[in-house]
Design goal:
heterodimer; A: about 375 residues; alpha+beta; Rossmann fold; OB fold (Dihydrolipoamide Acetyltransferase, E2P); 2 domains; 6-stranded mixed beta sheet; 5-stranded antiparallel beta sheet; 20 strands; about 20% helix; B: about 325 residues; mainly alpha; MetI-like fold; 14 helices; binds adenosine-5'-diphosphate; binds magnesium ion
């Protein structure tokens, strides 16, 4: 059990700076997920914590000790690799036992640990098999088992599920969550899949180009994204963004002019915003409704039926495309004209710099869209 | 017993042929068509000389007049004249050359394998100028053996050689050593030069195998704190073993046929004479085509036997599991 603290951690490969000073405080027993687009430095950050890469500048503390100069084996961590990294010529048992054999454990002790982990992961029947005789999901379990037997203070996972098919991904995800509940070890988990991030994490760290964009619980990130990047990254389908201008500023709301003439009062703190400034309005597909007298008019370009709900891709003029998610089967066809209503209490407003304006206290709450209060 | 007979009665081959579709048959025909040229060339450049050598080994042919010879059966190999055994198999020089060759092969290939692994491991590590190092290390292998053997001859010269000079200056030896003439050092000298020349080849083959290894398992071993020496013996070595066996077989076959290196370094000295040098001496110096051919045939048989043994042993172990 240990907390992990990063203080202004930086990493440079040759001349390329990949991690630009990351500050992060991971509590003991917490499940933290690093999420971000491919190439943003998630793996690098994890490998810095593991000790597989040297930290260029900054400090790393695990369980209160500064571990910058400590070899991986002495950091009390275990890592599960994306590619499983199993020894191809050893059977499952040896794969799990290999790392223990030098750790001064007795044969009986090793045997007990390996069998215990195998029982936990339900791979007891596979102990004599070679990795190539296993399916992807079974290999991943062995890789996790190899981490478990080390009894680490911190588990590190680098995209452990990305090589599995969808059904197995969900199943293994649940097992990892259960492992966290059972062991109460600190876990740091890297993924580019925001569903994995949302479902597993106590807290999510959104990374972009080597910098932290936002740290928070899954719902904090979903309901109060700190900036355009997080707003666009968390949530699927992506949040709709509409470029617009500030039409007026009230004490507790900002009036923006929508394309097509309408205005919308967004309940956010104006925080020095001036009329005439360019801002970005953000609204999730669930918070756009088709209604007879909506604020925006557009033409349906494409309909995607998903069964429990459906997506409409609406062209609102000037190349502005909005996604709408409505429950049930679609009642509109491609080519038809619709009028859209935005749930204003669920709208986000971002400055030109991408920074989000703070919502009014209690304004954005995870309840159903407040359609009646929207202004046309 | 009866069931075995009954099974034997089933016309398996004909049934298989009957099931062959016309597509399969045309594929088989195309395959034969494609390998026919190489088969013909092989028969001409390898099969024919081999057959001729084997034929000559049963004759009393002479290099001066190759058209006039008589078939004498196994007399080149073994013959009894008035109670005295004669022929190749009774010649102590032949057996000496067989022993020299086997000793040379075992020692030089062993040293080359160990050194080759060491060099390959170094070249496999990331360091600046690695590409250049890989090219440089191949130089000994790229120089024709005759040239490098001559070069070493000069360096090893008892009076003018740079090696004696250096050892004298360092005070390691009191008097110059006649490296290639002294029976105690001659074969070791040959081994040393061969190691110098062929280690790069070994290293390159092993390096290719090392580069095929997945990198992530080494990171996993690092995280688990497994000692690098242990990782080498428990992970790297088992994983490169198939490639290593192939490399060793290659080198061993080469070493068993060794000729140019030994001939240039020590000429016909009995202390270092290999089987090939012996055959050449019989054939060219003594003009005994029959006896020389008999020696060549025996070399062929010995090497063929060793190949079969190695491949059989290798298959057993390869079958176990490389990965
Ligand atoms: N060993 C390395 N040498 C040079 N550049 C690297 C190295 N490892 C990663 N990078 C670079 O660092 C950036 C982040 O990589 P990575 O952490 O693997 O991204 P992610 O895991 O988020 O997809 C990439 O631009 C990548 O090219
Ligand atoms: Mg990655």
């Amino acid at each position: 059990m240990a907390d992990v603290i990063l203080k202004n951690v930086q990493k440079t490969f040759g001349r390329a700076k990949v991690i630009h000073g990351v500050d992060l405080d991971i509590r003991d027993g917490e499940f933290v997920v690093f999420v971000g687009p491919s190439g943003c430095g998630k793996s690098t950050l994890l490998r810095l914590i593991a000790g597989l890469e040297d930290i260029t500048a900054g400090d790393l503390f695990i369980g209160g000790d500064r571990v910058n100069e400590l070899v991986p084996a002495k950091r009390g961590i275990a890592m599960v690799f994306q590619s499983y990294a199993l020894y191809p010529h050893m059977n499952v048992y040896d794969n799990m036992a290999f790392g223990l054999e030098l750790a001064k454990s007795s044969k009986a002790e090793i045997d007990r640990k390996v069998r215990e982990a195998a029982r936990l992961l339900q791979i007891e029947a596979l102990l004599d098999r070679k990795p190539r005789q296993l399916s992807g999901g079974q290999r991943q379990r062995v890789a996790i088992g190899r981490a478990i037997v080390r009894d680490p203070k911190v588990f590190l996972f680098d995209e452990p599920l990305s090589n599995l098919d969808a059904a197995l991904r969900v199943q293994t995800r649940i097992e990892i969550a259960k492992l966290h509940t059972d062991t109460r070890a600190t876990m740091i988990y890297v993924t580019h899949d925001q569903v994995e991030a949302m479902t597993l994490a106590d807290r999510i760290v959104v990374l972009n180009a080597g910098r932290i964009e936002q740290v928070g619980t899954p719902l904090e990130l979903y309901h109060r994204p700190a900036n355009l990047f997080v707003a666009g990254f968390i949530g699927s389908p992506q949040m709709n963004f509409i470029e617009c201008q500030v039409a007026g500023v009230g004490p507790a709301e900002v009036l923006v002019s929508l394309p097509g003439g309408g205005t919308l009062a967004v309940p956010v703190q104006p925080d020095g915003l001036q009329a005439g400034e360019a801002v970005t309005l953000g609204v999730r597909p669930d918070h756009v409704r088709i209604s007879p007298e909506g604020a925006l008019n557009g033409r349906v370009e494409l309909v995607e039926e998903l069964g429990e709900n459906h997506l409409l891709y609406v062209d609102a003029g000037q190349g502005r495309r909005l996604t709408v998610r409505e429950p049930g089967d679609a009642r509109h066809e491609a080519g038809s004209t619709v009028s859209l209503d935005l749930a204003r209490t669920f709208c986000h407003l971002f400055r030109r710099t991408g920074e989000a304006l703070q919502p009014q206290a209690g304004a954005t709450s995870p309840t159903s869209p407040d359609l009646t209060s929207s202004v046309a | 017993m009866t069931s075995a007979v009954a099974q034997g009665d089933v016309p398996v081959p004909r049934r298989v042929r009957g099931r062959r579709s016309s597509l399969t048959r045309s594929r088989v025909r195309a395959a034969w068509l494609f390998i026919a040229p190489s088969l013909i060339i092989l028969a001409l450049i390898a099969g024919w000389p081999l057959a001729r050598t084997i034929w000559f080994s049963f004759t009393d042919a002479d290099l001066n007049n190759l058209s006039d010879y008589e078939f004498i059966g196994f007399e080149n190999y073994l013959a009894n004249y008035d109670g005295e055994w004669l022929g190749l198999l009774t010649d102590p020089d032949w057996w000496r050359s067989v022993w020299n060759t086997v000793w040379f092969t075992l020692v030089s290939v062993s040293i080359e394998t160990v050194l080759g692994i060491v060099v390959a491991l170094i070249l496999n590590a990331a360091f600046p100028g690695r590409g250049l190092m890989r090219a440089i290390i191949l130089i000994p292998w790229a120089i024709p053996t005759v040239v490098s053997a001559r070069m070493w001859n000069w360096m090893l010269h008892d009076q003018f050689g740079v090696i004696n000079d250096m050892l004298l200056r360092l005070g390691l030896i009191a008097a110059p050593i006649t490296w290639t003439a002294n029976p105690d050092t001659a074969l070791w000298t040959v081994v040393m030069v061969d190691v110098w020349k062929t280690t790069p080849f070994m290293a390159l083959l092993i390096l290719a195998a090392l580069q095929m290894l997945p990198g992530d398992i080494y990171e996993a071993a690092r995280v688990d704190g497994v000692h690098p020496v242990r990782v080498f013996f428990r992970v790297t070595l088992p994983l490169i073993r198939p490639a290593l066996i192939v490399a060793i077989v290659f080198r061993a076959l080469d070493a068993l046929r060794v000729f140019d290196l030994i001939y240039v370094l020590t000429a016909n000295s009995r202390d270092t004479m290999s089987m090939s040098v012996y055959a050449r001496q019989q054939l060219v110096d003594f003009q005994e085509v029959g006896l020389g051919s008999a020696a060549s045939t025996l070399i062929f048989l010995i090497i063929a036997l060793l190949v079969v043994i190695t491949l059989a042993a290798g298959r057993v172990r390869l079958g176990e599991d490389p990965r």
